[in-house]
């Protein structure tokens, strides 16, 4: 039985996959085989030695110390595309909020005390202060056209916007999802100087931290409207506040409130709601549950962000899974242990990802603890699991 510790509220749909008697889910397990998380920050988290994998029900993994996990042989999974439609739907709302002063208009409605006459007549007199431009016919720049950005770019075309996209790392699979009417721009500055609206859909990493800063803002049109449903830190906070105060940026709509942003004019904030729909939560929980289940029971790795993906149909009496450094001679050393004990390899797979490699062996015998221990002792082996 595998013990899974949930660190956030995970959709109950994961229990369709992670159920008794194979699994026990709890939010207090001290020595879990797996952690199931949403946006919890795991930097500094005390990983127990039994921990084999982390399932991130969502896409962003900036909250997970990936290097530490890799060095400890902990496989980290995420759920690409599982919440993309949820973010796209909120983007449409954000686009409206970026254009029209809906937020201040609503605040006025709910705080009006009747002192200047009935609300029905008073509102007709003051409503012009909440006017704003229409977005149809305007230029939208999309930075990052992966699972979310591709949906956003396509729906913006349906809303009659002209759409420009910048994504220097776009995968071939993701490129297929973007409409041919979206114009690919290969220079960020070239995109920035043409946009009336800008929307961000990149992961937070060392390259994208502060991507929107004084310098990039200076290239933009005056009165640009920026939407950030990626991560707060992709936008330099000092720079965006300066630009809002000067009027260079007309409005900033973001999913990542901070104390300072809450008190800045022309900022509209939602409380990290992009992936918070019934469907997105259920999709992500099921996807992460399937990934962890296939890894824990079969050693297969799919949608990992720190290990190579390896899928092998089960074949043979038992399976030995070895996470090791990607250095010469590892397979020979491991296979020598099998052949010395007359164990035949029925099928195998070996894949690498940067400095790490993963080898899976299906063998024709039950694997003893002694053999597993011997493989563990080989130099540059990080973790060994035997699945009988
Ligand atoms: N507000 C929320 O609740 C949610 C926020 N997110 C955020 O949105 C981000 C994107 O989500 P997905 O589209 O699902 O991820 P994804 O991995 O499918 O797409 C990310 C895209 O960004 C591109 N990219 C990476 N670095 C870039 C750079 N420097 N410049 C331009 N493009 C770059 C990649 O090539 C990729 O196509 C996530 O990493 C996460 O931080 C995602 C889901 C929900
Ligand atoms: O709501 C969540 O769990 C986080 C969604 C998100 O930000 C992501 O998937 O990257």
Automatic annotation (TrEMBL):
According to the UniProt entry, its GO molecular function terms are: NAD binding; phosphoglycerate dehydrogenase activity
CDD domains cross-referenced by the UniProt entry: ACT_3PGDH, PGDH_like_3
Q: In which pathway does it act?
A: Amino-acid biosynthesis; L-serine biosynthesis; L-serine from 3-phospho-D-glycerate: step 1/3
Q: Kindly state which reaction or reactions the protein catalyses.
A: (R)-2-hydroxyglutarate + NAD(+) = 2-oxoglutarate + NADH + H(+); (2R)-3-phosphoglycerate + NAD(+) = 3-phosphooxypyruvate + NADH + H(+)
Pfam families, alphabetized? 2-Hacid_dh, 2-Hacid_dh_C, ACT_AHAS_ss
- Report the transmembrane regions from the record: none
> Where would I find the ACT domain in this sequence?
319-388
**EC number(s) from the headed UniProt entry:** 1.1.1.399, 1.1.1.95
- SUPFAM superfamilies on file: ACT-like, Formate/glycerate dehydrogenase catalytic domain-like, NAD(P)-binding Rossmann-fold domains
Keywords of the record, alphabetical order, are:
NAD, Oxidoreductase
Which InterPro entries does the annotation name? ACT-like_dom_sf (IPR045865), ACT_dom (IPR002912), AHAS_small-like_ACT (IPR054480), D-isomer_2_OHA_DH_cat_dom (IPR006139), D-isomer_DH_CS (IPR029753), D-isomer_DH_CS1 (IPR029752), D-isomer_DH_NAD-bd (IPR006140), NAD(P)-bd_dom_sf (IPR036291)
**Top-rank EC class of the record's enzyme:** oxidoreductase
**Sequence similarity:** Belongs to the D-isomer specific 2-hydroxyacid dehydrogenase family.
Functional summary from the UniProt entry: Catalyzes the reversible oxidation of 3-phospho-D-glycerate to 3-phosphonooxypyruvate, the first step of the phosphorylated L-serine biosynthesis pathway. Also catalyzes the reversible oxidation of 2-hydroxyglutarate to 2-oxoglutarate.
Q: What is this protein called?
A: D-3-phosphoglycerate dehydrogenase
Q: Give the species.
A: Stecheria intestinalis
